[in-house]
Specification:
single chain; 3 helices; about 0% strand; elongated
Length: about 140
């Protein structure tokens, strides 16, 4: 039995083959994503100011008890975490605005390393909150 097929299907290759003929790199990022990054930057800036005020009041105007020490450490950790978030959102906006597609590998390395740093500072802040809670509970006895 002869099986005849349409000639256009005879040289079909499975999968996606890109020969570089029609590669067009568009740096189009949705406006909603840019707006979300801008809102996250604004929230990060407000948090940085708030944590900076907490540190300034605790360092210069407050008494140094154990709870204020925990709160100061928590403010430092949160300040650093918000600074990393701010840098990450700034990188997103700069890559989308200036279309820096040739630096995408360094951007991905930055995102990976900032994710590790964010997890480290997030776990530290949770540890300080747990220590403050245990200290307050033990102070009741």
């Amino acid at each position: 039995k002869n099986i005849t097929a349409e000639p256009s299907l005879s040289n079909w290759t499975p999968g996606y083959v890109d020969y570089g003929e029609n590669t067009e790199h568009n740096c189009l990022i949705l406006v909603e994503l840019k707006a979300l990054a801008a809102v996250c930057m604004a929230i990060s800036l407000c948090g940085l100011v708030g944590n900076g005020l907490v540190l300034w009041f605790l360092d210069f105007h407050g008494n140094r008890s154990l709870v204020s020490h925990y709160i100061a450490n928590l403010a430092v950790v949160d300040f650093t975490l918000l600074l990393v978030f701010l840098l990450l959102m700034l990188a997103v906006l700069s890559f989308s605005t200036f279309c820096l597609s040739d630096l995408i590998s360094s951007y991905l390395n930055f995102v990976f390393s900032s994710a590790i740093v964010c997890q480290f500072f997030d776990l530290n802040s949770l540890g300080f909150l747990a220590a403050m809670s245990v200290d307050q509970c033990l102070a009741l006895f």
